[in-house]
Amino acid sequence: MTKPGIDLLLVDDDATLARVLAAELARSGYEVVTAATGAAALETMAKLEPPLVLLDLQLPDMKGLDVLRAIREASPGTEVIMLTGHGSIDTAIESIRMGAFDYLAKPCPLDELEIRLQRARERQSLRKRASLLERGLVPLDPGASFVGESPPFRKLLHMIERAAPSDSTVLITGETGSGKEMVAKLLHARSPRMRRPFVVVECAALQEDLLQSELFGHERGAFTGADRAKPGLFEVAHGGTIFLDEIGEVSPATQVKLLRVLDTSSFRHVGATVEIHVDVRVLAATNRDLSKLVGQGLFREDLFYRLSTITLELPPLRERFSDIDLLANHCLARLNARYGFEKRISQAAMEVLRRHAWPGNVRELLHVMEAAVVVCEGAEILPSHLSAAIPTGVQRGSLPGAEGPVLTLEQLERDYIERILRQTGGHRGNAARLLGISERNLYRKLREYGWPA
Fold first, then answer.
1. What is the three-state SS of the chain?
2. 408-453 has which fold?
3. pLDDT tens digits along 227-236
């Protein structure tokens, strides 16, 4: 880790030159440390780890190239600019091959030196950004978020542990809000690809042409607005995992191309003829019945069988009511940690949670708990704090085997969507975000229910 305040190490046995350069660079805002020998330079590197080094090729005790090699091995993120006298250009070029950022001939104009240093800083910044992006593509193991002891849930966890180490394609099915993306992340995190990218593609959020461009990339001029070539997400996921969310919304044309990638591990950019080969594990998820879509001619049978090598079906929350207490307390613990609270759930409030039918599944429970924590002014969450988020009409008593009217899954889903739309004042985009689905998917459901879209 770079020590604060140290910007640059200047290594040169010419004391006058070192003193002048250090003073000039200090005026430009650099915190400079000097060393007159290779041994002193490596000792300073070990203690201070400066991000930039100006290194003379000729030192009294060591060759500059040997010092460079030692710096590159000990601190790969440090950028080294070589300082060379006349007649040493070939050696300076060799230093570039060994990993030096650049070289300058002595005596070097200060403005030229500052330009090279600025470029070295910019490259370091780009490397850091690239590292952050790569880490962002590699999710942490979400195993701690999988809370439950019910038999259906334990069976799911067992299947995940069996499927994760393999390279098999997995189809994850389940209702909206049941945690399909979390399962995909856990499969990736427990696989040999855990340190490689995990790329999420929201298939329902993009129009046909845009989806193909995102998945497979495109060449410059492939279509209007394609002013530069762009890699596809399958390339980004190379070596890792790609997660195709809402795969049931993909058009027949894109289905054909996906089938080819699954069969051959290759594809072409839109507008290109060259084949690109990738090593990617494919996970897919849907809240629709793909076998039913196959029967209706809306989804390719061969793609369905290719995707469902292993199928993981997530149980809805209404089928694992014994987990509600665990989930609610887990959510509360995380919210308390986030907001610095020490709130608890009263028994009466917990009973309200147990009676609710949870058409929005675990995602709905998360929203309900967060709303209750925010509106609760005291230390204990009461039923009144849940009333705004939980409607009285959708209760466990409405389910088969309990007293009261029997509601179908479709009726439960319709009631939940209607409640979210009321909560958002009819704003479809905000409603889709709360529901955890794309606007396109929400509009499809509204059409299915005969509501004006």
1. CCCCCCCEEEECCCHHHHHHHHHHHHHCCCCEEEECCHHHHHHHHHHHCCCEEEEECECCCCEHHHHHHHHHHHCCCCEEEEEECCCCHHHHHHHHHCCCCEEEECCCCHHHHHHHHHHHHHHHHHHHHHHHHHHHHCCCCCHHHCCCCCHHHHHHHHHHHHHCCCCCCEEEECCCCCCHHHHHHHHHHCCCCCCCCEEEEEHHHCCHHHHHHHHHCECCCCCCCCCCCECCHHHHCCCCEEEEECHHHCCHHHHHHHHHHHHHCEEECECCCCEEECCCEEEEEECCCHHHHHHCCCCCHHHHHHHCCEEEECCCHHHCHHHHHHHHHHHHHHHHHHHCCCCEECHHHHHHHHHECCCCHHHHHHHHHHHHHHHCCCCEECHHHHCCCCCCCCEHHHCCCCCCCCCCHHHHHHHHHHHHHHHCCCCHHHHHHHHCCCHHHHHHHHHHCCCCC
2. Arc Repressor Mutant, subunit A (1.10.10)
3. 777 888 999 8
